[in-house]
Amino acid sequence: MKNAEFVNLLYKNATATEGTCSFCNRVVKQKKQAGYKNLITHLQDFHNGYETVAEECVKNNCEPLSSMFVHKDAADTYGWTKLVALKTFPFTHVDDPIIRYAIRYKAMDRATLLKRMVALVGVVDTNSAEKLAGEKFATCMVSWGGPKSKFIDTKWIPATSVAVERFFSTVKSTVGYLRKSMSQENLEVIIFLTLNWDLVTLAVVSKAIQESRSSTDAEQE
Description:
The chain is mainly α. The protein has a domain at 1-68. The chain contains 10 helices and 5 strands; from the N terminus they run αβββααααααββααα. It is globular. Mean pLDDT is 74; it is low at 137-159. InterPro entries: RNaseH-like_sf.
């Protein structure tokens, strides 16, 4: 996203000379010739993770709220997880000091990130089960003119669809690449989060962090 988009989304009543922060209601002054410098600097200094919040608001078509910063580490964990799950970012890079310096997220070791990702799988899985309670899903071959239903109509997908072949080819190559550098358990975590990324939010990540820490504390007792 561009700075102008962040300002339009995360500030109320923004003008060429000032804007009211949607998170803390602070009025931030801005010189016309300076672009969005002061407005963006305020977000960087006082609302770490604002980029992730903005992306989530766009994805879910919702208003930005201070409650989205439910845990101070949520945005950083979300960012690292997104790199690993969606960009085949090697776990070893998480520990690399050069990579840490170049990336805006707060540094954390890969063991901590992996524990949080495992907990994230549990939270997403639980949330999905609760939302789908009582619902029944199946693949259904129906005609376009037939009655509407909750079932998934896959008739439109041709057996030799280039898009489908490309999708599975990408998954196969990605899985093959990752299997060389990690265990099956870690690979399963990444694949699950990759396929269910639309269910991952800052609130879900925050809950996963709390559960991960509770699990760690229990192991140490």
